Amino acid sequence: MDVETATSLGVWGLPLAIVGGMLRVSPPFLFVSLGECVTEKAGRVNLGLEGNLVMGAMVGYGLSYLTGSAWLGVLAAAFVGALLGALHGWLCGRPRVNDIAVGIALMLLGVGLAFFLGKGLIQPTAPRLPSFSLGFWSGRPQVVSALTIDLLFLIGVGLAPLLGWAFNHTRYGLVLRVVGESADAARAMGYDVNRVRLWATVFGGALAGVGGSFLSLYYPGSWNEGLSSGQGLMAVALVIFARWDPVRCLYASLLFGGASALGPALQSVGFTSGYYLFNAAPYALTLIIMVWSNSADKTSAEMPAELSIMR
Amino acid sequence: MDDTSAKPGWREPVLAVADAVVVPVAALLVSILIFGVFIGLTGNSPIAVYAEMYRGAFGTWFSFQNTLLRAAPLMLAGLCTALPARLGLIIIGGEGAIVMGGVAAATVGVSVSNASPPVVIACMMLAGALAGGFWIGLAGALRVYRGVNETISSLLLAYLGIALLNHLVEGPLKDPESLNKPSTRHIGEANMLGDLPGLDVHYGLLFGIVACIGCWLLMEQSVFGFSGRIVGGNARAARLSGLRVPRLVILTCVLAGACAGTAGMVEVAAIHGKANASLITGYGYTGILVAFLARHHALAVVFVAVLLGGIGASGGLLQRTFDLPDATVLVLQGILFVVLLVSESFRSKLNVSRFLKVRG
Predict the structure, then answer these.
(1) Looking at this predicted complex, what is its ipTM?
(2) pTM for the whole thing?
(3) Cβ–Cβ of A87/B338 closer than 8 Å?
(4) How far is the alpha carbon of B342 from chain A, nearest alpha carbon, in Å?
(5) Cβ pair B72, B128 in contact under 8 A
């Protein structure tokens, strides 16, 4: 939204810009955090999802440009994300390999590969994902455009409760949780702990790839090297805040999306001083939330016991 | 366990060093192989690319000095990850400490620019070290007192530091004359950090080497370092044996951040003369790899920083000669990092002393 349309709405301009921004910015947070939630439920941390996000964005954009289908782009992004997840899962399954360090390495590798391979994609324009507006009831075009959402986001919104249900009511979900709570118990029950964790990381990586494709195929809707600035990493912190509950991941993603939309929204109503600081709101929010929701001597009951992130 | 450990002598330390060197070198060779295949897939000759990289990094006196210029901040950034790692903390936010160190150094440098140059440099160094130390110390304190994961918090702090830099140089600290690239005021040509005698390399290299030696003495030869390594081995045992774990962790993080902050100060005092977005170099991220490749050993950081500085220095040449993207260096670094971590799991098979024992 530009300055004129926002100010013409009076006091409603700012909240509308924030809500509109939230609907556009939160989906990558949502997909990455849901993916990380699954991985962490199995007792492993993948800090490298930032790499999946950027690789997903690049590959999704490239495939969409080459084939003319944005959905094929999303699929390709999921595939590449799954591959990176598989690499993470395999590396962590080896003896004496630290999952945090592997995550950092794959973050650097994924981002480097995406920048390398995506050099030629900065110019061309790829087809974008379809969208529709929740603002159909309003006669004001600026409301209609602010409340536009895309189908992929809706899929993510549906996926959150589905995953929450699957954790508690399906065989796969229960096995995942056993592995995350006690590797020894899972082994005693005859499950291959490393294999379960590998698949959980593959699944999580694929979702993070989908989140990346959203960045390049819907909002901001192009490929460049500044596309992601830590969303993949913030989403990992978000899972801790959401206490490993997919539905709470959804709420937290919306909160983070809103925080990310704050800077641009203020700018749209003509408030430009401190632009960089407002744009840094999600980082500050993440940090504050981590300080607030953690504590040095007690760990949360909801936390998978095998998780190394809080040691 | 066996006879070699019972007989103290020259063999043990030599074998220990060999053990520490063989695995990273093997990882380096495997990475070179994988990256070569990658380069081959892009239609270039890997051998030509490697020859050019060697030429751009170490081949001539000029390029070697360029490599050393990059190695200096990498040593300091590497220490930022390596020191806390000895205590079992993985800090990856060195970039934030570099940026904050640079801003603080520039601000102080401008405000005391009328003093004699050595005083200006000393003040800038103190400011840079304090600002960087505060930034990483914060991550350490959050870890100790609130159980916040230091890996995530340090990276978030890096993003916040970069935002703060942009805010300050475009707002409160902006020199009205810097139109194209918003910057702070210049600290004055007379106050700039000069070159080492006989070299085209500034004093930052000396700072880096001295810092690495100092940190090596501290971590390997002092009670402080010994206590820290106990914390890294088993935090619970350290606590039970009466060590003041919170103090050790925070002090180490402050020291680590001070090193990275000094890197930012060097960038300002020796190269830019002012703080601006040029401080966001990525040295902080490469520093993570430096630390891991050096196995968090402060003296090894010196050599690994020169190696990675060379790889970075050759990036521009690759771009010009082969039309490869500037991210080529990032790909090589990423491959190197992943292979290094895999190599750790083969460590027992690559063990030199075991190899020798089997033979004899």
Answers:
(1) 0.90
(2) 0.90
(3) yes
(4) 7
(5) no
